[in-house]
Amino acid sequence: MNLRPLLPALLVFASVPAACKTPTPAATPTAPAASSAPAATSAASADPAASVASWTGGAIRRDALEAEVGNKLIQMEVEYLTNRFQTEMQAAEQLMVEKLVEEEAARRTITTDELLVAEVESKVQAPTEAEIQEMYAALARQLRGAPLDQVRDLVAGQVTQRKQAERFQAWVEELKKAAGAKVVVPFPDMPRMQVSVDDDPSLGAAAAPVTIVQFAEYQCGYCGKANATMKQLLKDYDGKVRMVYRDFPLSFHEQAIPAAIAANCAGAQGKYWEIHDLMMVNQQSLAESDLVGYATKAGVDLASWQSCRQDPAQRAEVMADFEAGQALGVTGTPAFFVNGIMLSGALPYELFALIIDQELAR
Asked: Fewer beta carbons under 10 A from the terminal one: N or C of the chain?
């Protein structure tokens, strides 16, 4: 049994962050002028008065260049450093697991293949009919309508591989715990951006040493996943983390703005998070009747809530958040700024915890 195909199941940071992305710039609201974007700091910053272009009678200073493309360059640097970190984490985890398996095989005086057969292959039950049917449904598009009888062996093989990967992951966690093993690749020193919390809703202590500003919206499934992660972080780092929610409605999600306004108007009655959480777990149900239902369940005064939703200032507030996100380089949801460090996508809890721990240790 080959070890390598099983390793990806263990790689916490190996996949590309999942996010709902904006379409081409022409399909989104216009961003504010670059000169209005908050300043960003980077280890690569230089003398702001230095000339980057000149001609007879004129010159372009570095600070003018930074105002034009500074946030874009910062975003590129963040993406590079994040990808490098993920690659290092993946390689370190893979090498460590291989060594742990080799040492365990040596301790038992058997080969690694024999060890994998004993601990993984022999402990996985044959696929049940229900599991085969479930996998067949999941692979429907790839199978292009092929009858189950024709592809049963293929589908059963996929079920077996999934179960072996799950068993392998559980077994390796046992090995790691017994050996006191852990990956300690430090998160890189990232450039930081000045991010306003505006007057937007927040959870956690106002004086918390770590502030997470989240740009998200209610129709993006990845935002729903991130919402659960944020809740767990706030619980585990009670008093140490504050999370601020800012709206970033994507143009191709028709109910994103109405949902954001619904939440903000509930917030005017002190019920923001009640309706926020209801919409985050019911992202496929955001029609007008649904919003009214959530508002009712949240306990708001419906007449005042409906009146608030008609106020043009509410839409303006939502779009002000959107434009602030664009100015910072946000192109999709969810996007986060952890003490100014930009992260994109529905990243795993472990990555947020790593950064928060490093921030708390500063």
From this structure: C
